[in-house]
Amino acid sequence: MASVRIREAEEGDCGDILRMIRELADNENLLDQVKISEEALRADGFGDNPSFHCVVAEILPPHSEPQEPRVVGYGLYYFIYSTWKGRSVYLEDVYVMPEYRSQGIGSKIIKKVAEVVLDKGCFQLRLSVLDWNKRAMNLYKALGAQDLTEAEGWHIFCFGGEAMREFAGN
What we know:
alpha+beta; five-stranded mixed sheet; 25% strand
């Protein structure tokens, strides 16, 4: 098995991150909803006041091969605030390319983000998963995450697009 490195994303990774965002959306049958651009990722994640942070998983080639490392996964996260608990992190996406799954890369991405949570003095790491993605749910539970839909009955809602404009009166 090839060597894997998890590192903080750099601005030059935005093309790979966008490619994988599209792959993830396609896997979820939601590709038509991806509106983000590589330029927006650069501006929003790598400016003076980033809206998100990201780690990437790289496959490192053997020393005998002159190839560059290949970015095969990512974890995109941002800081949130719980009025009950305080500072927290929301892991928006965890993605590993299909041909690199079942090698522990997803767990390594989540672990790296969990290290950030602890290093920044945050209380918790939150994430969401689609109800049909049993494989991901089983992984998160195996890593110690609690399913809040099961445990507390939480549902996620979103105001977006036209509904938000109508509600806000614009």
